[in-house]
UniProtKB/TrEMBL annotation, chain A:
This is FtsX-like permease family protein. It comes from the Bacteria. Pfam families: FtsX, MacB_PCD. It comes from Jiella pacifica. It is a multi-pass membrane protein.
TrEMBL record, chain B:
Residues 11-236 form the ABC transporter domain. SMART domains: AAA (SM00382). GO terms for molecular function: ATP binding; ATP hydrolysis activity; transmembrane transporter activity. This is ATP-binding cassette domain-containing protein. It comes from Jiella pacifica. Keywords: ATP-binding, Cell inner membrane, Cell membrane, Membrane, Nucleotide-binding, Translocase, Transport. InterPro entries: AAA+_ATPase, ABC_transporter-like_ATP-bd, ABC_transporter-like_CS, ABC_transpr_LolD-like, MacB-like_ATP-bd, P-loop_NTPase. GO terms for cellular component: membrane protein complex; plasma membrane.
Length: 380, 236
């Protein structure tokens, strides 16, 4: 038997009470696991880079920028690579199958985002084969059952062709997986020259430039310089990191992060109160036994650690169950939800388990530490 | 091992005073109490309720402190030690046997006996070996995995004795060890205490109300109103 065994046996001495506590904790961590996976994954913000910069029109993300800006931006000595893009948003077959195509220069997208998107030379060659080829992100392909070799038609919400139609035909040339699970792959990569040549309006403009600064450069300072370059032009720019952009984009609809933080905080504060209350009573019930342990030679500190070990044990069991359930639900969830249960989510959850385990045990443990043996013996 | 009564005082109480505050009033328990007990002795302490027996035992166990005076056991001055130091002293030098056994219900017999050994730097194998040895000594071989609630009072008290001696302390303090037992079980427990005193040389202080239990001790001290009023020595 070890101290941990003793703490464990103490925790399970009232199985129903402990089981209810474990369920309560498991549910709280299930909520946390799912909401954190949502924030982490669906926003794509966790996989988004703080260094890669997006240059858009200051008048709004739907306003175009002249492609001629490219040469001036590339002239900055801190720019390592630059790409430009048009966004085509629309649906495939049915309106519920919403997709987004980023029409880019294949060679430039490889230089700027090739690593993050998991692009290989083979995928690049496939995209270069014909102007109407697209590469589909893994999450989108899985969600909509898209396969290599398939021909699809994307009906654009806004972008019209010169013939007035909004139907854009593509052939799927490959699927890219992204660098890791948190990379946003719920979109397609198409070719700029194809969309630019066929579209009805705004030819030779772009929706955004994507800039990769040099390693030694400060992305923040470069962003300021780029915006200064065009401050007095007809189309001023607004430059943000990829992460800032994605977060700002989502905040247009709702501050998801804040909502999630509020929900999770409410769950954890409720949990904290329930467990503290239960543990205080559980330890008070055992005051006499605490006296016995101290009479046998256990120090106040050792008894305190036993109580803390008990709450940590309950949190470890409940938290683990909740996180395993969250992981399983994320694994079987619709990829369109974009849930990503990544290592940072797990690490943060484990830190919360440890913190709550200690925080909820602190008060009863301190009471156990302070209880004199004589007083404890009167408790029978 | 045969009994060897060491006449150097192993336990020495000098000018001990102790009182409690009850409803704001000072209630003295001891004033200038002196007591010397040599190592290897087996002393029964008797007296009416409120005479201070339990208070004395608590002070000897280091779970209560005298208000003034000196309390020495072996080379340790308990009256001058901190709470943590007294806990450590208890873990190493003293075993305690309670009237109601006070076994932890969620632990089986072996785990209850092993408890004090968790405080010592012993390997799991060494702890197991010691537990087996003392369970054998108290006649509970084969019951290691049983839980206390399934045992009789006499058997539970044997577990309590095994727990008290497993760390091989020199001093055993017994608080009414037969108070909850029938005569037959009580005699078995008292025989065991006598064995521990005579054969293993343990110094035993036993608080009891039972005159027959006191007959097992080498001497009996009668406590009344905080003073020893009578001493009886058993015929050796």
């Amino acid at each position: 038997m070890t101290f941990l065994d003793l703490a464990r046996k103490n925790a399970w001495r009232k199985p129903l009470r402990t089981a209810l506590l474990v369920i309560c904790i498991a549910v709280a961590f299930l909520i946390y696991g799912l909401t954190a996976s949502f924030v982490n994954g669906s926003q794509g913000a966790s996989g988004a880079s703080d260094d890669i910069l997006g240059v858009m029109s200051a008048a709004g993300r739907t306003q175009p920028l002249p492609i001629s800006y490219m040469n001036r931006i590339e002239g900055d000595p801190d720019v390592a690579a630059l790409n430009y893009m048009i966004r085509l948003r629309g649906f495939v077959v049915a309106e519920k199958n919403v997709v987004s195509v980023s029409a880019v220069d294949p060679q430039r997208v490889m230089e700027v985002s090739g690593k993050e998107l998991g692009l290989t030379p083979q995928l690049l060659d496939a995209l270069n084969l014909q102007r109407d080829k697209v590469l589909v992100g893994r999450a989108l392909a899985d969600a909509q059952g898209l396969q290599v070799g398939q021909n699809i038609t994307v009906t654009g919400f806004d972008l019209a062709r010169q013939d007035g139609s909004r139907n854009w035909s593509f052939g799927i040339a490959g699927i890219f997986d992204g660098e890791n699970a948190s990379t946003d792959t719920y979109f397609m990569l198409g070719r700029y020259d194809y969309l630019n040549a066929a579209r009805a309006r705004n030819r030779d403009t772009v929706d955004a430039f994507v800039v990769r600064p040099k390693v030694s450069a400060s992305a923040g300072e470069l962003a300021v310089r780029i915006d200064q370059m065009f401050a007095n032009s007809a189309a001023p720019t607004r430059t943000q990191s990829e992460k800032q952009f994605l977060e700002a984009f989502l905040r247009q609809y709702a501050d998801v992060g804040l909502i999630v933080d509020l929900v999770v905080s409410a769950a954890f504060i409720t949990l904290l109160m329930i467990v503290i209350n239960t543990m205080v009573f559980a330890v008070r019930e055992r005051t006499f036994e605490i006296g016995v342990l101290k009479a046998l030679g256990f120090s106040g500190m050792q008894v305190m650690l036993l109580v803390l070990g008990e709450t940590l044990f309950v949190f470890a069991v409940g938290g683990s169950i909740g996180l395993v359930l969250a992981k399983l639900l994320v694994a079987i969830s619709d990829p369109a939800l974009g849930l990503v249960f990544s290592m940072p989510v797990l690490a943060k959850a484990l830190a919360i388990i440890a913190f709550l385990g200690l925080a909820t045990g602190a008060l009863p443990a301190f009471n156990a530490l302070r209880t004199p043996v004589i007083v404890a013996f009167r408790g029978r | 091992m045969t009994s060897s009564l060491n006449h150097d005082p192993y336990i020495s109480l000098s000018k001990i005073t102790k009182g409690y505050k009850i409803s704001g009033d000072d209630v003295p328990i001891f004033s200038n109490l002196d007591l010397e007990i040599p190592g290897g002795d087996f002393v029964a302490i008797m007296g009416p309720s409120g005479s201070g027996k339990s208070t004395l035992l608590n002070m000897l166990a280091g779970i209560d402190r005298p208000d003034t005076g000196s309390l020495r056991i072996g080379t340790s001055r308990l009256d001058q030690m901190s709470e943590a130091a007294r806990a450590s002293w208890r873990a190493h030098f003293m075993g305690i046997i309670f009237q109601f056994y006070n076994l932890l219900p969620m632990l089986n017999v072996a785990e209850n006996v092993e408890l004090p050994l968790l405080l010592k730097p012993l390997s799991a194998k060494e702890r197991r070996s010691r537990v087996e040895k003392v369970l054998d000594l108290v006649g509970l071989t084969g019951r290691a995995r049983q839980y206390p609630k399934l045992m009789s009072g006499g058997q539970q008290q044997r577990v309590g004795i095994a727990r008290a001696i497993v760390s091989d302390p020199a001093l055993l303090l017994c608080d009414e060890p037969t108070g909850d037992l029938d005569r037959k079980s009580a005699d078995e427990v008292l025989e065991m205490l006598r064995f521990l005193n005579r054969e293993l040389g343990k110094t035993i202080i036993m608080v009891t109300h039972d005159p027959q239990a006191a007959l097992y001790a080498k001497r009996t001290l009668h406590l009344d109103k905080g003073n020893f009023v009578e001493e009886r020595r058993a015929a050796l």
